[in-house]
Amino acid sequence: MTSPINWISQILCVTAFNLRTLPARKGAAASAAIGIAGVVAVFVGVLSIAEGFRKAMTASGSPDTAIVLRSGSNTEMTSGFSRDETRLIADAPGLARSADGALASAELFVIINLPKRFTGTDANVPLRGLDWTAFDVRKDLKIAQGRRFERGRNEIVVGAGAAREFAGLDIGKKVRVGRNDWEVVGVFTSSGGIAESEIWADATVLQSAYQRGASWQSVYARLTSAEAFQEFKDSLTTNPQLNVKVVRQTDYYAEQSTQMTRLIQTLGYAIAALMGLGAVFGALNTMYSAVSARTREIATLRALGFGAGPVVFSLLIESLALALAGGVAGAAAAYFAFDGFSAATMNWQSFSQVAFAFTVTPRLLIQAIICSMVIGLIGGLFPAIRAARLPISAGLREV
Amino acid sequence: MSNDNGVLVKVNNVEKVFRRGSEEIHVLTGLSLEVPSGDFLALMGPSGSGKSTLLNLIGGLDRPTAGSVSIGGERIDQMGDRALAAWRARHVGLVFQFYNLLPVLTAERNVELPLLLTHLSKADRRKHVEAALNVVGLSHRTKHYPRTLSGGEQQRVGIARAIVTDPTILLCDEPTGDLDRKSGDEILSLLQALNREHGKTIVMVTHDPHASGRAKRTVYLDKGRLSSMKPE
């Protein structure tokens, strides 16, 4: 009976022999590894879009911030409040307060057209009207360049993502919106979140420009704590004077990102699966060639007493080693090529562009390596089984 | 490792049928053979007569369609694949016509291969390898790769690999078939010495009457049957 140690030493021995024959087959081995690297690079590249989009949509969300919309509305686009309603919301319990009053920001949301900086094509960009309170409601918001807009003036501050993606949003420049020119006076950041895709202006000026009167579409409310949400929500949803929907900011953004993230992920997996199929055939071809070229050597080892099991395992290890090399190369290439790459895409829930950066996460890299190993496993398994099943006497006759 | 009456190899009423599509090829038909321990037997016969098939059955590289093969009293035709592989590693030394050395390994690493299936330490393995290469007269070529050795030298490495585990039986399939006369003679002398001086039981398949003349006895195979007389 073969002992486990003996079995392992057989695997190591045959594997070492197999790997030492690699230089003689470097062309086929390299093509299989490159094929797998390509799959992994595309896999990581596409999924880094989904990851970056999801991150942009959720990064600036905070569990102690609530968004109040009209009941039945899923987005700010379809919501609407009167001045009285926004005041009632600002009086609700659970709201954080500063010296200036409750940290509740009544906001207006419109879509404007701006040309993309790199293609020149028009795209929908969200323009948000708000009060200075909004800067205190959003904790992670920072003016990175310039200053805030002044109340009552046609001034805008732009998110860093919007400034990067759309033309004419540099400080000092003027943007034509409706019948007015608006001067860019500042650039803000928001931890890479969705707010960075927006342009902000004084709500009262925007109401006037868009003839909205005294109406708002949403109220962003900073709570005393994340735990105060339920009290805040209950007080508003049970108030007979209001007909509202209250959601945490984190849940709101997560829901907004779900559709696009799923679409990109589905596409990513589908493309990777199709390419992976091609890579499996590449790996199969390489390993069948490897087995074919070494039929006599493998038969000799088995004639000397090496077991069929160690032969199968050692060929699988060789295939997995090739796949791992390809996987690591592809993942590294994808990381350096895609991580941080800026882009903008449509958020179909708000019909506006979201600026985001491709994000290659460690989890994505691990998934990619696993994907390459699966390709290596399938590509190596059948040739290895063939090698183990070939009658020794027939293998010894191979030239 | 022989049974009571000194018979090491007992092939009893063996049949071997190969299938090629729907066609059945009867290579061995009711063949029986006994090889005493310490014998040096040459198996001769025309191409396709079943010599190598018989050698493969004795070496546990293949299984008979019917009949039995016993080596030292053990029925190897009834062993499972893993047990048979372990049995080969312990009891059989194989010498091939084309040497079957692994090209990426040096002479000493090729010879060491069968020892990797034992529990010997690295130091003990080295001693065994040195001794085997010394027996075949190649102790000065231990670090050479097969491609840098002559055919005769490669076959010596092959023989060293076959004897390094001190197997019960040496099975040689046309060991001089790829060599010139001088190198072939040297290999045959080496096999004779292993038989005479080290008591190795050897079964050798050959086409060459000159080679069979160096064996203690010769049997002939023709159309799957054995004869002590050369067929007409």
Fill in the CATH topology of chain B.
Answer: Rossmann fold
Structural class of chain A: alpha+beta
The shape of chain B is globular
- Shape summary of chain A: elongated
Radius of gyration of chain B: 17 Å
Total number of strands of chain B: 10
Number of domains of chain B: 1
Largest sheet of chain B: 6 strands, mixed
Regarding quaternary structure, what we see is heterodimer
Number of domains of chain A: 2
Strand fraction of chain A equals 15-25%
- CA radius of gyration of chain A is 30 Å
Report the order of strands and helices of chain A.
HHEEHEEEEHEEHEEEHEEHEHHHEEHH
Total helix count of chain A? 12
* Helix-residue proportion of chain A: 40-55%
From the N-terminal CA to the C-terminal CA of chain B, the straight-line distance is: 37 Å
Biggest chain-to-chain interface with counts: A-B, 26 and 28 residues
Strand order of the largest sheet of chain B: 6-7-8-3-9-10
What does this structure look like?
The complex is a heterodimer of chains A (399) and B (232). Chain A is an alpha+beta fold and 399 residues long. Chain A has helices at 4-20, 26-58, 83-90, 133-137, 160-165, 203-209, 229-237, 249-293, 295-304, 308-338, 362-389, 392-397, and strands at residues 65-70, 81-82, 97-98, 101-102, 104-115, 122-130, 142-146, 155-159, 174-177, 180-189, 199-202, 215-216, 218-222, 244-248, 342-347, 352-357. In chain A, the strands form four sheets. In chain A, strands 1, 5, 6, 7, 8, 9, 10, 11, 13 and 14 form a ten-stranded mixed β-sheet that branches. In chain A, strands 2-12 form a two-stranded antiparallel sheet. In chain A, strand 3 (97-98) and strand 4 (101-102) form a beta hairpin. In chain A, helix 8 (249-293) runs parallel beside helix 11 and helix 10 packs antiparallel against helix 11. The longest helix of chain A has 45 residues, at 249-293. Chain A is elongated and about 95 Å long. The model of chain A has no long low-confidence stretch (mean pLDDT 85). Chain B has 232 residues and is α/β, with parallel strands linked by helices. Chain B has one domain (7-227): Rossmann fold (3-Layer(aba) Sandwich), CATH 3.40.50. Chain B is 32% helix and 28% strand. Chain B has helices at 51-58, 81-91, 107-112, 122-135, 151-163, 181-198, 209-212; strands spanning 7-20, 23-36, 40-44, 66-71, 74-75, 92-95, 169-173, 201-205, 217-222, 225-227. A six-stranded mixed β-sheet of chain B has the order 6-7-8-3-9-10. The A-B interface holds A 1-2, 6, 9-10, 13, 17, 20-21, 296-297, 300-309, 391-393, 396, 399 and B 52-53, 56, 59, 61-62, 81-83, 85-86, 88-90, 94, 96, 98, 100, 102-105, 113-114, 116-117, 119, 161.
